């Protein structure tokens, strides 16, 4: 190893490469770690009961890892996540899943940037395989366990060195990953002596070859042949011309290495019948958590609930970053104005507090639930009509005395369903920051909106002819559309997750809620959109969009209803406007309106 390489390794040992990517992203502003950035953070990360804090931290970590992967392999657009039961490495889908083991069990002395270095090395390693390994590497892995080890070692060395040639500054991540994987726990890779002399020698040579090629401590094998074969492989792979290296056939190289390492010991076919105690290297390091592998345990997989929250935050983070770049570009006269904000549909995770808030809202509106339901269900009640004086049917006893020789003494009951009218109703709840203002009766506007949402859901849910969607909306970097209740997800506790932050993208919310309603609703069924909001929509494009969308929905036959919680002007073109006064009045007006919609559209 050259003096320059040794100096580089020493530099990697003395610093954390991910400090740059983690700085300024919130983790170093944690009040618990000020003055000692990242210290002890990872040791207690997943032991915390604050799921949101965990998700925010893990999202920041994924952001740091993904930045490096994007720089090195950005044209492939890899998605980086932590491994869970639902998320595994899938090269066809360009998805990389990382083991969470470094976070669950951080090595002694490792701070958060050191762990992120390790995770970045893992992600770069997987991305390098996807970019530089030939398809046969995945489809033609030999059944010979010793040949499989050689094939993996050759391929791992090849893709890491090739990546380092194209991006020399990132080779340190591979070194950090190898250090963590192969040197921190020597017993994990130690050769286990076997009574069978042949099996013992095969495992010894394979293990020694693995450590010589992958260890960061200049490991010297106990078997001279292993050192000679490792030197031969290094001459083949450790060259400085990446284009020439890409022409190397690693499959042929692996076969040659195998013959040199074991050729004087056994015939190739004998090795297929001998077991290998060599740690199943083919499955280690892939971090997929597949059933039956060494990685399928609770220490390496993120819980599904936490994974969903991380992915939501990560998606929002990416969209906000894209939006910021577009907005900056819009300041340049050579660029067109930025497009409208991106829209993110999110399904918030519920907790006990959300369930309690919903139950409180339900108890407040309980006296009005039946009243509203009855007003709509009356219009959806079947009509029963009895037809009399028929030549056959049930005996009409009242007609027996009328005609001495008549056969018109029967009647038949007919049920007419023409009064039944189906409705698909979408409810949009403003969750912007202005909803914290008081609405009277000791309630904030947000609490009142939550109570009204509970009233509509409780009243309409039992009616088979009605399907209901409830969305919260606000603008905070991106337009957030919170799925609080849908026919496919009927957990009413989500309505208790409504908060108040950001601004009011009412026009965008109308547009995308209508799209969901049209896509998921029933064909040829009357659509109704109800907006519960207080102040004016965001000025400019959003205000214009409200009027445009209301007009467009009217042309499509979709009725729009605005329930006003504040003192805003009625200039947005809604088909119907119901100002908030009290529950009794709103229930009466809304019930009368729905009844009219049903009867007018029969």
Automatic annotation (TrEMBL):
Entry-linked Pfam families: VWA
Domain of life (superkingdom): Bacteria
Domain VWFA per the UniProt entry, residue ranges: 424-601
Stored InterPro entries: VWF_A (IPR002035), vWFA_dom_sf (IPR036465)
Coiled-coil ranges per UniProt: none
Cited PROSITE patterns: VWFA
Protein name: von Willebrand factor, type A
Organism: Desulforamulus hydrothermalis Lam5 = DSM 18033
Organism lineage string: Bacteria, Bacillati, Bacillota, Clostridia, Eubacteriales
């Amino acid at each position: 190893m050259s003096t320059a390489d040794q100096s580089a390794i020493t530099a990697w040992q003395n610093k954390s490469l991910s400090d740059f990517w983690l700085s300024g992203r919130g983790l170093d502003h944690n009040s618990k770690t000020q003055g000692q950035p990242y210290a002890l953070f990872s040791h207690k990360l997943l032991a915390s009961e604050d799921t949101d804090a965990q998700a925010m931290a893990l999202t920041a970590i994924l952001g740091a890892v993904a930045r490096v992967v994007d720089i090195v392999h950005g044209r492939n657009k890899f998605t980086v996540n932590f491994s869970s039961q639902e998320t595994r490495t899938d090269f066809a889908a360009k998805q990389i899943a990382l083991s969470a083991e470094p976070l669950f069990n951080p090595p002694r002395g490792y701070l958060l940037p050191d762990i992120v270095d390790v995770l970045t090395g893992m992600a770069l390693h997987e991305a390098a395989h996807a970019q530089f390994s030939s398809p046969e590497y995945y489809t033609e892995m030999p059944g010979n366990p010793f040949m499989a080890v050689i094939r993996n070692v050759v391929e791992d060395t090849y893709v890491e060195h090739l990546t380092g040639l194209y991006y020399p500054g990132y080779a340190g991540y591979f070194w950090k990953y190898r250090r963590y994987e192969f040197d921190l726990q020597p017993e994990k890779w130690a050769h286990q002596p076997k009574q069978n002399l042949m099996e013992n020698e095969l495992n010894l040579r394979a293990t020694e070859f693995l450590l010589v090629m992958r260890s960061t401590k200049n490991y010297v094998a106990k078997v001279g042949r292993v050192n000679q074969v490792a030197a031969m492989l290094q001459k083949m792979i450790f060259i400085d011309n990446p284009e020439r290296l890409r022409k190397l056939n690693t499959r042929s190289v692996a076969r040659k290495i195998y013959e040199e390492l074991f050729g004087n010991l056994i015939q190739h076919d004998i090795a297929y019948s001998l077991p290998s105690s060599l740690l199943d290297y083919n499955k280690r390091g892939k971090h997929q958590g597949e059933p039956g592998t060494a990685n399928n345990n609770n220490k390496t997989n993120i819980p599904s609930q936490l994974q969903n929250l991380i992915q939501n935050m990560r998606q929002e983070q990416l969209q906000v970053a894209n939006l910021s770049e577009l907005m900056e570009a819009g300041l340049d006269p050579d660029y067109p104005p930025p497009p409208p904000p991106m829209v993110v549909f999110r399904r918030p995770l519920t907790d006990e507090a959300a369930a309690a808030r919903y139950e409180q809202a339900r108890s407040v509106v309980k006296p009005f639930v039946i009243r509203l339901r009855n007003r709509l269900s009356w219009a959806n009640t079947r009509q029963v009509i009895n037809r009399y004086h028929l030549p056959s049917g049930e005996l009409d006893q009242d007609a027996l005395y009328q005609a001495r020789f008549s056969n018109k003494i029967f009647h038949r009951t007919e049920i007419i369903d023409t009064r039944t009218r189906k409705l698909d109703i979408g409810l949009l709840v403003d969750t912007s920051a202005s909803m914290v203002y008081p609405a009277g009766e000791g309630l904030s506007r947000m609490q009142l909106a939550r109570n009204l949402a509970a009233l509509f859901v409780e009243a309409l849910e039992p009616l088979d002819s009605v399907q209901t969607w409830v969305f919260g909306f606000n603008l905070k970097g991106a337009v957030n559309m919170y799925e609080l209740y849908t026919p496919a997800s009927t957990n009413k506790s989500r309505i208790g997750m409504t908060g108040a932050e950001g601004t009011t993208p009412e026009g965008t919310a109308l547009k995308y809620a209508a799209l969901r309603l049209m896509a998921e609703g029933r064909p040829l069924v009357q659509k109704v959109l109800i907006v519960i909001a207080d102040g004016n929509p965001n000025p400019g494009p959003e205000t214009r969009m409200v009027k445009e969308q209301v007009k467009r929905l009217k042309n499509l036959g979709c009725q729009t209803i605005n329930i006003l919680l504040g003192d805003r002007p009625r200039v947005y073109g809604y088909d119907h406007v119901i100002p908030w006064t009290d529950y009794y009045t709103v229930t009466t007006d809304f019930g009368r309106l729905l009844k009219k919609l049903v009867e007018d559209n029969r």
